[in-house]
Design goal:
This protein is of the alpha/beta class. It is built from 11 helices and 20 strands. The strands form 5 sheets. The chain has a 7-stranded mixed β-sheet with strand order 5-4-3-6-7-9-8, sandwiched between helices. The longest helix has 14 residues.
Length: 400
């Protein structure tokens, strides 16, 4: 836990899930820069009068730092992450702000009807930024104040071109502490055109014949999903090696992304019950669309959950977990998410149940699985990727 001091007050903030060993903060210099600007202005841009601003909307606030600092102005938060919502709720409670002070929205929800101040924390995914700007542009007006923020390494020419193309004239601030601001002036004519413009998302493609058990399936990707226009090599390798004789098992596609892996299981075994779960609203929407594009409605045996891994599933309720874990959290490289997924998998598996993982070989996950499950088997390997299998033994004590 760390304290963020801003012109709007001071508050203790954490990421989610909370981990006292986590050294990563719940905010960075880009968040601080934006909050300073709102209070005092930057360059020839004066402060923003939030007290009379009307509807303030914050897009991409990563752990709720921005809306917690601005809670007194009753902002709306739009995020793709259920973990961000959980962190925001915890940080608001810690700051003594009512939960109702921030309107929590997802990237799949309709935006506020009229937006008077739009604050954009530039996301890692340019596609997600594009999709959201298309969705938000029709809700802006001539007087809307639009300010983006991000670290210098996150703001590229392509980022600025999107603001310019979809919203209006755009320029940037000087850099401070390796962070930069984006100033954009809404062009009402452009916003009106945006109502008729075609948002290119979601994208669809068909898996080629080298896609293992996914060959021939239709994939639907909403904006922000990794490798949106083609099958990535890690998933391809996984599909070439996952079990297809699931015999009516209850299967969990953990961190499902576009849901192709779980859908491939459902197509190969119509008696299987597949649970798709991800912390990304865009991912679960993609998984549902992918499943619906490939599975007959009279054989619908699927559940779609947005949240913190297996939090909504009872222990011992799953026969097989399939997992392609991420090794990034925003811009940070970390194995924390993967290790947490492995521990969650052990909890939700029944005795004798199996966890199958595809990962970059260099991550060395076999040692973690052996420590957690007492066993780990290499099912398949190639120079870059490895598929691992671990079995939950009935009487093995939980690791300390």
């Amino acid at each position: 836990m760390n304290r963020l001091t801003t012109p709007f007050g001071s508050c203790e903030l954490t990421r989610f899930p909370e981990d006292p060993r986590d050294r990563l903060r719940a905010w960075d210099a880009a968040d601080e820069y934006l909050l300073r600007h709102l209070d005092s202005g930057t360059g020839d841009r004066g402060p923003v009068d939030l007290s009379g601003a009307g509807q303030i909307t914050v897009l991409g606030d990563r752990w709720g730092a921005l809306v917690t600092a601005l809670a007194a102005y009753r902002p709306a938060q739009i995020t793709d992450s259920a973990l961000t919502h959980a962190a925001t709720e915890a940080n608001l409670a810690r700051a003594g702000a009512p939960a109702s002070s921030v309107r929590l929205l997802t990237t799949q929800d309709a935006p506020p009807e009229r937006i008077d101040v739009l604050l954009v924390r530039v996301p890692k995914s340019l596609a997600l930024l594009e999709d959201q700007l298309y969705r938000l542009a029709p809700h802006l007006h001539e007087g809307t104040v639009v300010v983006g923020t991000g670290m210098v390494k996150e703001i590229h020419t392509s980022t600025l071109k999107l603001f310019e193309k979809i919203i209006g004239p755009t320029r940037t601030s000087l850099a401070e502490k390796k962070a930069r601001l984006i100033f954009c002036t809404p062009d009402v004519r452009r916003a009106s055109a945006g109502r008729a413009a075609t948002d290119p998302w979601p994208l669809r493609y068909t898996v080629d014949e080298d896609g293992g058990s996914g060959a021939g399936l239709t994939v639907v990707n909403h904006a922000g999903i990794f490798c949106a226009d083609r099958l990535d090599v890690g998933t391809r390798f996984f599909l070439q090696n996952i079990p297809t004789n699931t015999a009516g098992a209850r299967v969990l596609d953990l961190g499902c992304g576009n849901g192709l892996v779980g859908t491939a299981v459902a197509v190969a075994d119509p008696d299987a019950e597949v649970v798709f779960t991800d912390e990304s609203y865009q991912a679960v929407a993609s998984a549902r669309a992918t499943f619906e594009a490939n599975v007959r409605t009279d054989r619908w045996r699927a559940e779609f959950l947005v949240g913190d891994g297996v939090a909504d599933l009872p222990p011992g309720s799953v026969d097989l977990v399939l997992n392609n874990p991420p090794f990034h959290s925003h811009q940070a490289t970390t194995d924390a998410t993967a290790l947490r997924m492995f521990a969650q998998s052990r909890k939700v598996l029944r005795p004798g149940g199996e966890l199958w993982v595809v990962a970059n070989r260099h991550m060395g996950y076999h040692t973690h699985l052996r420590r957690l499950f007492g066993n780990s088997e290499v099912v398949a390997s190639e120079p870059k990727f490895v598929v691992l299998r671990a079995v939950k033994r009935e009487n093995r004590p939980r690791p300390m």
